[in-house]
Structure formats: C-alpha cells, structure tokens
Amino acid sequence: MTSHDAPGGSRVAPAGLVIRPETADDHRDVREVHTRAFGDSDRVPGLVEALRVAEAALAPMSFVATVGDRVVGHVLLSATRLDAPRRIVDVLSLSPLGVVPEFRREGVGTQLIAYALAAADSQGVPLVFLEGSPHYYGTRGFEGAGAVGLRSPSLRIPEPAFQVARLSAHEPWMTGTFVYSEVFWAFDCVGLRDREA
Question: Which residue of 8, 84, 101, 104 is 20 to 30 Å from 29, comparing CA positions?
C-alpha cells in the first residue's frame, strides 16, 4: 500500500532530508503523513497504529523521513510469513509507504525504501513483500513475486502488483504462499475491493 503508485522517476531528494527510525514522539506526525498521503483519516493510520503493537515473530521496523523538524514521509516493515514447502519463514511486508503530497516525486519514497530494505537485510530477513506499482518498485529493488515462485495471499491483488525484494538471506527453496498478518485483514488492507459489488 503506497500513496504514490504513479509511474515515473523521482528527482534528487530535498536538501536536508534525513531518514531515521521512528520514535514515539513521531506518532502524531506519522498519522498526519498517512492521512494526507492516502486521503483517509482512519484506515491507513489505524493500520500503522495496530501494526506497531501487534504480537509478531519479528518486531516492526518503522522509519520516518524528515526535512528540518518536519516529518514528510514514513514507511513501516511488519512481520508476515511465507508458507514454504520446507517450513514457515518469517518475512516482512513493506506497507504502508506514505509521503506528504508536496514532497512527492522528490526522492523521499525512494530513500525510505532503500533504508527499509537495508535495515531488513541487516536483520537477516530473506524477503520483503508489498503490493504496488511494478513501474515504481521495479527500479527500487523489487520484482514480480509470481515470477520467482511465490503465491499471492488474495485473488484481489493484481499479479503485477504482487512484488518481492529478495535479500541476502534468501535461499532458493523459499517459495510458497505469502501470508499477511491478521492486522492487514482486520483493516481490509489486502488487495483491491470491487467498489461496485
């Protein structure tokens, strides 16, 4: 789930951009980022708040992008699983990624993604999944998950949107079905809903 799935490149990151771990003091600003980025005052900010405190095999990793004292972007990595033939594998989901509208297309999202993937890799996480534009994420470390033997958790996720980043700890036997945590289902943040149904 991203706030800027439009294709296209980004410009050089704004001067003074800093990516750092989120602190409790950032929570209100992060809520505002997602409210503005998604035009949704409850669902995505609520997802973030629930994922921060959900019991999981892997602790969430949450990062903010700041310019000066202002939080202009946020990304969250949270625990999910891969149901592989050999065993269950603890993996991460990169969702949500949000950037306030006035800082979009300036490299903020790209920097957040790079920071998040490096953090996941340093923790020995083998795979990071997301739903998003292959045009955007395909140049930022992700590839189509189906093409490398991974199955989507929902028929409502368009095949091109089901993306994965294979990190250093990935092994060839790690194939199978991606499984979102219960929080994503509870907040109806998996796949696309048919608004006409």
Answer: 8
Q: Which two tokens stand for residue 79?
A: 């625990």
Question: Containing H/E element for 44?
Answer: helix 43-53
**Structure-token pair, residue 81:** 């699983």
Tokens 């990595």 belong to residue:
77
- CA dist list (Å): 131 to 4, 53, 118, 156: 12, 22, 19, 11
The DSSP-derived string for 111-158 is HHHHHHHHHHHHTT--EEEEES-HHHHTTTT-EESGGGTEE-S-TTS-
Contact 3, 40 (CB under 8 A): no
Helix (H, G, I), strand (E, B) or coil at 34: helix
Segment 126-144, tens digit of pLDDT: 999 999 999 999 999 999 9
Helix or strand holding residue 142 (H, E): none
State how far the Cα of 4 lies from the Cα of 37, in Å rounded to an integer. 8
| pTM, entire model | 0.91
Q: Are 34 and 44 in contact (CB under 8 A)?
A: yes
DSSP state of 8: -
Tokens standing for 106? 């300036």
Place of tokens 């790690």: 174
